[in-house]
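User: C-alpha cells for this one?
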Amino acid sequence: MANMVGDWKLVPELTTGHDEFAKAMGMSDAEREATRNLVYTFHLSRDGEEWYMKVVTETGVVFVDIKFKMDVPFSYLSLDKTTKLTSLITLQNEHFLEKMTSEKNGVVMHWDVDTYRDGDFVITAQTKDGATEIQKLKKV
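Assistant:
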C-alpha cells in the first residue's frame, strides 16, 4: 500500500451519498449538516508491520491519531469524544477493507469501509445497510 502512504486532503465537492449514509447511521439532521462539509487531512505512514494513521479536521481537531497492525482490532473515540469506534483493517488487492463498529449509549452499529488508490485520489467508500458514501482525497 505504498501508493497510499502520505498526506491526503478531502475534496468535499466530490463526495457522493453523504445524506443517505448519514441517515443509515442514524444521524440527526443537525449531525448530517455538520458532517456534510467536514474537511479533513488523512495521513498514513508505515514502519514494517506497524501503520500510523492521523486524521485532522480543517479546523485543527485531531480525530484519529493511532498506530495499528493489519488484522488486529483497535479502538478510539469519534469526533464527539463519547462514541467508541473499533476498527479491524485487512489488506486485500491493494484495498484497506475495514470493519467498523460504533458504540454509544448501549447502541452498537456496524458498517464497512473500503479505502484504495484510484489515479490521483484515495477513495473511501463507507457502506451501511446498502447506503454508500464515497469520498475522494487528493495528495497534499
